Amino acid sequence: MKLIIAYIQPEKLNDVKQALYAKEVYKMSVTNALGCGQQKGYHETYRGVDVEVNLLKKIRVEIAVNEDFVQPTIDAIIEGARTGNIGDGKIFVTDLGQCVRIRTGEEGHNAIG
Amino acid sequence: MKLIIAYIQPEKLNDVKQALYAKEVYKMSVTNALGCGQQKGYHETYRGVDVEVNLLKKIRVEIAVNEDFVQPTIDAIIEGARTGNIGDGKIFVTDLGQCVRIRTGEEGHNAIG
Amino acid sequence: MKLIIAYIQPEKLNDVKQALYAKEVYKMSVTNALGCGQQKGYHETYRGVDVEVNLLKKIRVEIAVNEDFVQPTIDAIIEGARTGNIGDGKIFVTDLGQCVRIRTGEEGHNAIG
Amino acid sequence: MLGMFKSKVSLLAAAAILVLPAASVFGADSGAPDSQVGVDTLWVTIAAMLVFFMQAGFGMVEAGFIRAKNSSNILMKNFIDYCTAIVMFFLVGYAIMFGTGNSFLGWSGFGLSGVADIIPNTHVQKYAFWFFQAAFCGAAASIVAGGMAERMKFAAYIIYTVAISAVVYPIVGHWVWNEGGWLAQMGFKDFAGSTVVHITGGWAAFIGTIILGPRIGKYKNGGLPKAIAGHNIPIACLGVFILWFGWFGFNPGSTVAVGDGSAFSRVAMNTNLAAAVGALAAMAVVWIFFGKPDLSMTMNGALAGLVAVTGPCAYIEPWAAIAIGAVAGVLVVIGVSLLDRLHVDDPVGAVAVHGFNGIWGTLAIGVFGQKALGVPLDGLVYGGGWSQLGVQALGMLTVAAFSIVCMGAVFLAIKHTMGLRVSRAEEFRGLDIGQHGMESYAGFQIFANE
Amino acid sequence: MLGMFKSKVSLLAAAAILVLPAASVFGADSGAPDSQVGVDTLWVTIAAMLVFFMQAGFGMVEAGFIRAKNSSNILMKNFIDYCTAIVMFFLVGYAIMFGTGNSFLGWSGFGLSGVADIIPNTHVQKYAFWFFQAAFCGAAASIVAGGMAERMKFAAYIIYTVAISAVVYPIVGHWVWNEGGWLAQMGFKDFAGSTVVHITGGWAAFIGTIILGPRIGKYKNGGLPKAIAGHNIPIACLGVFILWFGWFGFNPGSTVAVGDGSAFSRVAMNTNLAAAVGALAAMAVVWIFFGKPDLSMTMNGALAGLVAVTGPCAYIEPWAAIAIGAVAGVLVVIGVSLLDRLHVDDPVGAVAVHGFNGIWGTLAIGVFGQKALGVPLDGLVYGGGWSQLGVQALGMLTVAAFSIVCMGAVFLAIKHTMGLRVSRAEEFRGLDIGQHGMESYAGFQIFANE
Amino acid sequence: MLGMFKSKVSLLAAAAILVLPAASVFGADSGAPDSQVGVDTLWVTIAAMLVFFMQAGFGMVEAGFIRAKNSSNILMKNFIDYCTAIVMFFLVGYAIMFGTGNSFLGWSGFGLSGVADIIPNTHVQKYAFWFFQAAFCGAAASIVAGGMAERMKFAAYIIYTVAISAVVYPIVGHWVWNEGGWLAQMGFKDFAGSTVVHITGGWAAFIGTIILGPRIGKYKNGGLPKAIAGHNIPIACLGVFILWFGWFGFNPGSTVAVGDGSAFSRVAMNTNLAAAVGALAAMAVVWIFFGKPDLSMTMNGALAGLVAVTGPCAYIEPWAAIAIGAVAGVLVVIGVSLLDRLHVDDPVGAVAVHGFNGIWGTLAIGVFGQKALGVPLDGLVYGGGWSQLGVQALGMLTVAAFSIVCMGAVFLAIKHTMGLRVSRAEEFRGLDIGQHGMESYAGFQIFANE
Ligand SMILES: Nc1ncnc2c1ncn2[C@@H]1O[C@H](COP(=O)(O)OP(=O)(O)O)[C@@H](O)[C@H]1O
Ligand SMILES: Nc1ncnc2c1ncn2[C@@H]1O[C@H](COP(=O)(O)OP(=O)(O)O)[C@@H](O)[C@H]1O
Ligand SMILES: Nc1ncnc2c1ncn2[C@@H]1O[C@H](COP(=O)(O)OP(=O)(O)O)[C@@H](O)[C@H]1O
């Protein structure tokens, strides 16, 4: 099992969800985050003082999947989130040792979906 | 060492904290999240337009523990969070390679608690 | 590749960023979190009723790095975040199996930076 | 607008002006000149606007003091209770309150039909008088929303609103403010409504809150109260300022006359002093007993001072307003703590503010009231003895009991038919989504774990 | 302040008082006594303040009903349209609206030069009259901001504001409220502006919204509308209360005279009733058709009632205000749904509230208006036949068409020169940062995925 | 309410009406008829209500412009400074300001004892006059809160409030607004308080901010200022609207007389114009120099226009109000930037708005003032020469210096005894929790990293 973490542009969340649904990945958890990456922030002035904003609004998606879903999930995220512009985001994949469904106590592969 | 990530219902946080304290797990980090799972969202109308809400409010708990605390921690979370209804949540466990206490620079098992 | 997760005091974020920049770590993702640790919360009264606050405001920083950046990154976080007081925070390091840049589809070491 | 100068209205006005001081400017009804009727009506109309605006104040205070997930619900209650009260007071309430009837209730003037153009004993047009009184009725109805916040069904709240605005409040008003009312005839005094508005509303909130039961999670593990923090203190603070501002219509406007200005201006000054001192007193008490000056309690202190001075404001000197405000500020802190200990879960302090200080304000007339300013007998401190205080106590007790009994019956009837309280799941998720299908702060990340 | 009592102003005032009722107190201009002019001017000035305050109401409603990322932008539009309208109405607008000229527009009194001290046919100082009228002009300009919210460039909005406040609104005002205007001469009636303010503003918003196109994401996949929730319902609710409060200056103040008080007090009562009933009706309709009582729609209902009663308020009895409000409440819900279906993306319901109900209010004069209260002919329900209704319909159609054509031309001109709409990227990021370089809620975590 | 018609008050009023125009209606004190006293008192009372309401405006602007973690603290300061000022002004301040004494201060009328029922040289009841003046005093006290926001101890703020409201403000007021004051006798003019209120408050904020030092993190790495964004621009915007609204009591109400309406209505118009032009000018300057039209600066521009026109409003023609507003709008932007460069960390722009434009407004009387409207000498542009401007400059300098010296001494005394500033840790965590044990937005996720 793997835990997939993706940072995407906020306005792409709906597209990513659609793409995941198409690949039959229905479960996920989402948080809002601030990201600092290749994408430069922007300068503004507030009350005449220069402001440099380099933490940009991003959305963090966390998805636990079984092995055979890893590639489809990654593909779906890329499909939904890619615009080709800097700031599109990253996908990180880590090993997931164990998974438990709280409601039933089920463990492992069955608990994921 | 393991890193335990749990998604629970917001109103269960206090119960989960109590259950963890009972198992002598005192340290944790909490964020709010939106989750999409078996639990269907709900439909509303806003100004006469149908709205489908399928990202539901959840709380994400992250706990780093030593090996011998893994099972007690999982048990405590289940104890505190289970209602038996869809939407109770999930627990994910990943390996934790290293842990450092910023204040002292301590590493590993000693740094966790 | 490693995924480094650090919980720090909110007011230390800017210092941590400076320290990371000095070590040429430019990319990171940040979320706000609530933490429960050695640092005791505080008691207040609200409308004459006692309130115990034990979830304190923290900032969670997530940084994916290549192996040779792990130690510099940890050092930089400690440098920026340490005050020597309880509550300074923790650093957790997990294995990162895969990393994908959404924009280009690049994978692994190249995708991280 | 200029187009309307051909209307009869304006012609009349113009005529009135040109022939002053001839006989025709004296209105047929009142014997007063039109200009006098005009100015008094203007003052009452402006005061009514201010009382209307208090509705916004109630809404902001109540919403700010509760959790985000229930704030649209309380605003909706606030909004709709005013709208309902206006309609009910037009159709029924005014007739019961100001109509001729017996000493218990009035029974004429439904839909304002048959009401004289100029209200007897005043120089105020009926429209303005009705508007002013209707806004009062709305205020009385709003008090309850706060006490029963975060768990009461919206439909149930509408029923409650109809009952209080069409029947209960007008009956109490008849007793006190209709010359024919039994309390009025006993010499009971309540200048602007410590009794009529605040006791009626505050004790209705009390019984309602008890019947409804506390919010989930308010009393945990052996009954210790848990603080459930308000979600938006800035708008609550704005609400208190709006209420205070509106109270300058509520109290001074209750003179329903401009006269030589001495009455309403003294009332305004007294109102201002009592509010200020109430806030300072509440702050001091909280600071001393609980360690820090709590803004929410300080704001309750200002409201407590306003409620307490409402009854006596025209009958007292400024120094007495200070005394009344100081006691009110202390009383509200004690009241909030006491109710918390009694497990009466009143999220915004409605009972302590309106119920407790309505009583204090009513009694204060018997203590600080002056014969020279319109009370039948001098108050205690002026050596007038206990008689007036006795009458005030009687009136206060009767009205509180009447409100508790009537509204208690209404709430129990609702509870056992359509239900008074939302489900447990809905209480967790919040009444905004549950009752109205919307969020108050769409997009904002709100950490809700209770 | 006391220092100023050496000023000529005060000496005059003092003189006036001491010698009453001697001849010198009758103002040279009007033949009315100074005190009458003083009181009428006071009333108009206070009413103007209230109308000014509506600007805050518009701002809060519009900001609360849209997304957080665009709220400073809409507030800036609101703020600046008032400021611009004030300056434009001083320099140009007043002259076009109230100056002497032909039946289409006026052409005298630019910068108030040459305007008589006391406005003819009133007993109001020109300063107060101007202030009142200027605040009206600001209100008309503000209506459009809401309909075109979340995507219109700020600089384009300024151009729009200049056009409407300097030219379009004053011309319409001239037709209706200047004795010489062609609609006024036909006997067309609009007491406080259902036509002049609300039709003009509402239908400008309509055409603007169409030319601008819907927000990204509003109509997805085959054109089904998607709900885009407002981000701060409590401030929107406060805004509605402020608007309602300000409307008590708007409508009753349009009497521009105190007289014996009967006119403005009846207007105030009617205004209050129509708003309350509008809210109740909208709530009922939403509840029945969509399952839950939606607060945002209920608030629109109150505003709809206010808009609809604005035109007829002085010409009708209270029962008619109830009828007008009820229809308005239903109409606004239908209007919002209809426009959504027609892909006219009006985030705050400006067209349904002001456009639709401006029409209804204008027509209602022909239905419920009374000859005895100033309409040339009795309305339908009083057996006065269809004539007045015909005139009203004509006026309403002309004004709506005029507004659509003129403002449409302005919007198209802007679109093809400087551009009307922000870029796609900016629309995603929000106009607060894009247009003004700032965030409305710095620090707050706001989940924005659209 | 009707019950009160047996009171002496009403009988008097009724009597007054029935016998008009007989002799008895002329008040014993003033020689003016009761109805005149009634109407003037009504106007002053309503104006006082509006000035009171400005307190809500100050609170919202100041809270909105700072960070969320300190907003309850600033609201508490705002709330309590008004309450304290009211009590202090009743006990002490009024006597110092309006009592008879020497040309430096007055010394009679403590607790209003011995003050004549009708204020001499006016037709206003003492209660109304006191209320109006007390609300002014509260406004002066509030100005400082914003400049010293986000780091000043609450207890220290209370001491400050007592000092300014009981002593410093009343002394300045005595000089200018008491016939016996030395500046009044020199012919110095300040109609509604550019000097008395805004210079006093603004320069107290200046010295306080300097003594307190900048917020942690405001000037980093070599002294470059860092922007610390306000957390709630919508409520700040609402606050500006409320202030503007309240200013219609502040300036026009300072006529303390209705008269023939020409004075207060011109003041209202001038006030409105200066505010609008101030906003437009500030917007233009920010747009040109910093690239985007910043809402917060634009709002400061409106306030700057209001402050600047406060002093001259009754002495000028509308075109001059436009000129004064335009300069004010430019000045405030320069002021904010200048102070930032001088490391005077004033989070809300209090010094630039009130201090700088208080000076500008005071001087403007010598430039645009007209003898015919009450200034001893015509201003510069009317060819009256430099004399009046000289007097204005003298008064302005003395008052600014007096405020800086007195309040500087108070702040230094506090600093070296109880301490002026919260601890570093508390500044990080926020004063809401530190000083009051509460959060302003419980539950909201707020990203705070400074
Ligand atoms: N090494 C990293 N560690 C943590 N988060 C990262 C890392 N690299 C990128 N991110 C996240 O992904 C977002 C997009 O990255 P960015 O470099 O701007 O885009 P791109 O990958 O298209 O060049 C960042 O804002 C940040 O949230
Ligand atoms: N595979 C997954 N990946 C990420 N988050 C998940 C996953 N499955 C469940 N979750 C989280 O757990 C929450 C509860 O899951 P849900 O399926 O609704 O409940 P249950 O497990 O009781 O059927 C979801 O809202 C989501 O936040
Ligand atoms: N075992 C843990 N699991 C998850 N988060 C932790 C853990 N230990 C500490 N944290 C996070 O780190 C923060 C600081 O920890 P704390 O124990 O207060 O400080 P210190 O390490 O200096 O003693 C906590 O508030 C919490 O957010």
Topology, element by element:
The complex is a heterohexamer, with three copies of chain A (113 residues) and three copies of chain D (450 residues).
Chain A: E1 2-8, H1 13-22, E2 28-36, E3 42-46, E4 49-53, E5 56-65, H2 67-81, E6 89-95, E7 98-101, H3 109-112
Antiparallel strand pairs in A: 1-5, 1-6, 2-5, 3-4
Chain D: H1 8-19, H2 34-65, H3 71-98, H4 126-147, H5 154-177, H6 182-185, H7 194-212, E1 219-220, E2 224-225, H8 233-250, H9 262-290, H10 295-310, H11 318-341, H12 350-368, H13 387-415, H14 424-429, H15 431-436
Antiparallel strand pairs in D: 1-2
Helix pairs in contact in D: 2-3, 2-4, 2-8, 3-4, 3-5, 4-5, 4-7, 5-7, 5-13, 7-12, 7-13, 8-10, 9-10, 9-11, 10-11, 10-12, 11-12, 12-13
One adenosine-5'-diphosphate sits between chains B (7, 35-39, 56, 58, 86-90) and A (27-29, 62-64, 101, 103, 112).
**Number of DSSP strands of chain A?**
7
Subunit organisation of the chains: heterohexamer
Q: How much strand of chain D? A: under 5%
Major sheet characteristics of chain D: 2 strands, antiparallel
Range of strand content of chain A:
35-45%
End-to-end Cα distance of chain A: 11 Å
Q: Which distinct ligands sit in these coordinates?
A: adenosine-5'-diphosphate
H/E order of the elements of chain D? HHHHHHHEEHHHHHHHH
- What is the total tally of β strands of chain D? 2
Largest sheet: number of strands, sense, barrel closure of chain A:
4 strands, antiparallel
Low-confidence region ranges of chain A: none
Overall form of chain D: globular
**Uncertain spans of chain D, ≥5 residues at pLDDT below 50?**
1-30
Cα radius of gyration of chain D in angstroms: 22 Å
* C-alpha geometry of chain A: elongated
Main β-sheet, spatial strand arrangement of chain A = 2-5-1-6
Number of helices of chain D: 15
Radius of gyration of chain A, CA atoms, in whole angstroms: 17 Å
The strands making up the biggest β-sheet of chain D line up spatially as: 1-2
